Description:
Belongs to the TsuA/YedE (TC 9.B.102) family. 70% of the residues lie in helices and 0% in strands.
Amino acid sequence: MALDWTHFTPWSALAGGALIGLAAAWLIVLNGRIAGISGIVGNLLAPGADKGWRLAFVAGLVLSPWLYRVFAAPPDIIVDSRPWLLITAGLLVGFGTRLGAGCTSGHGVCGLARLSPRSLAATLAFMAAGFAAVWLVRHFGG
């Protein structure tokens, strides 16, 4: 396997990671809440949940690609997988999020930053599952 140097973008990746970390830190410092997307979106549907900040957070996620377009051209998106495989993957991610009581943002970003042993276990589990899934698809088609 060779590294595709024309698409290797460490500075934009670093900036994106810093922005995610900053947003997660702001949310916990200013609001006392963990920036776990599955919990934020899931509790939008729960009765009596405080919805204001949740709606603002989700609006930021939805609107940020349009803001990105102000500063840069949108990347070409190529989906070269079968629809049934994408649907299956989405359902498995949803199941894993429910089973692990959180998602990559809640456990991987916020939980690891808080040195949570539960988040470390969850992050190791979903990273291992992701590596295994990519290996299986690359070796047995998809």
